[in-house]
Structures are given as C-alpha cells and as structure tokens.
Q: What sequence folds into this?
C-alpha cells in the first residue's frame, strides 16, 4: 500500500466522517482504507427520492493519480450504470483529476441519479426510456427504490 495514497485516503475518509455530504455515508471494509462501503441516499429530485443504495469504492496504490473503481452493489436501473453495477462516469476514467477527492466523487455519483449522461450510456434501455418515455423510466426507478428498502 502506497504511503501517499493511504495518507490522502485517511484524510479524505476523516472528512467524510466529520462533514458528510447530505445523504452520503461511508465505512471502511474490514478496516481497510483502500476499500470503502458507501450508502448513497436518493436525492430529493424525483424518482430516486427515498432510495438507499449501496456502493463499493476501491482505491489502488496510484490514488489520487488514478481514479478509484466505484460500483453499485444495489440493483440499479440507470443510464450510466452497467448491469454489474459499474458506473460509467467520465470522472471515473478519462476526465479524472488528482485534485478531486473521494467525497467529491461520491457527490458526483449521487448527482447523476437525477441528471444522467444519456449520450454516454452504459444501460441503453434506461437511456432510451429516460429520453423517450420518462413516465415508464420513473416507474422502473420506483421499483428499484422499493427494492433498496429490503
């Protein structure tokens, strides 16, 4: 484990614990600073409201030079989430910057729930419904929100 990565992650995790963004909570998995288990509450902006979604964030020794891997463990129906829960978000890939923190990333993930990037879809059916039939999309999301309660 890189000293630089672990030192930075300790600081960022402490920030998340002291001043968590609204609706975002995290714990370390097995007391390992490199793996965070995060709960993201659905924002109050429509069909995601009231949902509670589990996410894992895995950091590597090259953090913050390389982005972490973020993946929903909860079932999701979203244009930017692959079937296995992997999140398709530019700042998790080619647009990553070492100046961003893990809490910033978590807020960005929460914000795409209501504002997906349909032009770079991971789930094409969800993207199509989001654009062409918002009512049907919202019904599917409501099912996912209800599943998140169990």
A:
């Amino acid at each position: 484990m890189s000293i630089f990565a672990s030192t930075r992650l300790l600081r960022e995790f402490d920030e998340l614990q002291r001043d968590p963004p609204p609706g975002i909570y995290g714990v370390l998995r097995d007391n390992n600073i490199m793996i965070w288990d995060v709960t993201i509450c659905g924002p109050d902006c429509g069909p995601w409201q009231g949902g509670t979604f589990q996410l894992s964030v895995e950091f590597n020794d090259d953090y913050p030079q390389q982005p972490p891997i973020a993946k929903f463990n909860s079932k999701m129906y979203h244009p930017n989430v692959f079937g296995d829960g992997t999140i398709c978000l530019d700042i998790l890939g080619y647009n990553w910057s070492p100046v961003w923190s893990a809490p910033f990333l978590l807020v960005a993930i929460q914000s795409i729930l209501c504002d997906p990037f349909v032009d770079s879809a991971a789930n094409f059916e969800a993207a199509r419904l989001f654009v062409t039939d918002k009512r049907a999309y919202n019904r599917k999301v409501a099912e996912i929100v209800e599943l998140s309660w169990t």
Summary: The mean pLDDT is 96.
